[in-house]
Write a structure and sequence with these properties.
2 domains, globular, two-stranded antiparallel ribbon, mainly alpha
């Protein structure tokens, strides 16, 4: 039985390789390169040629993606709160168990890294993690849209735009700053302002990770011999990895810095003054 399976696997592999080789040979003369890799990189960052008209304004495609992802998350949260949570039981079903595991994971992340004032932090980590993860996976849907110039494109991930990544980094920094102010007042502000490069590093880490997946896929597409099947595997793999890794990295950094600035100061014990004993008393 194992020999038959091996033979079938070899035959199927040979057929797939032969089909790919035939496709490369037949489409060699029809292949036209749309643009250079430099143009693709510039367009992915600046979005000069793929603006979308929104109420008469020219906006980047990632803004539409951000609105769609936010609407999906809010609608899902409303449905769960109204129809699902009231039916929760002591013996959880699969969906309840999955939801409790997700909430518990972010609450544990907040509790372990910030033992002080971690109630709001857990809620923010859950919201930010859901937005980053779902927003990154949103790119896999490939929802088509028409640009202002009449061309067609698929909506990218919201954080694939540098503006969206900067706002996510700045929002996380403001949450960290609020934790420092609530716990330590102006001393917490000083602790937070020492990490002035934190929003920049968070923003460009998100943007660079998502942009790297796009550029790797475009590089694979730019070579005709690799433009069959392989870009799909590479694109899906990079998207899933970035969704998981960037969600963990940003929430972990936010929890760590929040716990650092919200930690109350340690009061040093006062030194007791030594009582001088007169020499007459000691001589007696």
């Amino acid at each position: 039985m194992s020999k038959k399976r091996t033979a079938v696997f070899v035959i199927v592999t040979a057929v797939v390789i032969a089909a790919l080789a035939t496709g490369i040979i037949l489409t060699d003369g029809l292949y036209e390169k749309a643009g250079s890799v430099n143009e693709t990189m510039q367009d992915a960052v600046l979005h000069e040629g793929d603006k979308i008209s929104l109420f008469g304004m020219q906006v980047n495609p990632a803004l539409i993606s951000g609105f769609v992802v936010t609407g999906i998350l809010l609608l899902f949260a409303a449905i769960v709160r109204i129809f699902v949570i009231p039916k929760f039981s002591y013996i959880p079903n699969k969906f309840q168990l999955l939801l409790e595991q997700a909430v518990g994971m972010f609450e544990g992340l907040a509790r372990n890294n910030s033992p002080h004032r971690n109630n709001f932090l857990g809620a923010y980590l859950f919201a930010a993690g859901a937005y980053i993860c779902i927003g990154t996976l949103f790119e896999l849907l490939g929802i088509p849209w028409v640009t202002a110039a009449g061309a067609s494109l698929s909506l990218p991930a919201p954080l694939a735009d540098i503006n969206g990544a900067i706002m996510m980094g700045c929002l996380s920094y403001l949450v960290i700053l609020s934790g420092g102010i609530l716990s330590n007042g102006f001393r917490g502000v000083g602790r937070t302002l020492k990490e002035f490069s934190l929003p920049i590093s968070m923003s460009f880490r998100l943007f660079g990770a998502l942009l790297s997946g796009l550029l790797v896929t475009e590089l694979v597409y730019s070579y005709l011999a690799l433009s069959f099947v392989l870009p799909v595997i590479v694109g899906v793999l990079f998207t899933i990895l970035h969704a998981l890794i960037q969600t963990y990295v940003l929430t972990m950094l936010t929890a760590l810095f929040y716990g650092e600035v919200s930690e109350p100061p340690v009061l040093k014990p006062k030194k007791q003054k030594k009582i001088k004993v007169p020499s007459e008393v000691t001589s007696k």
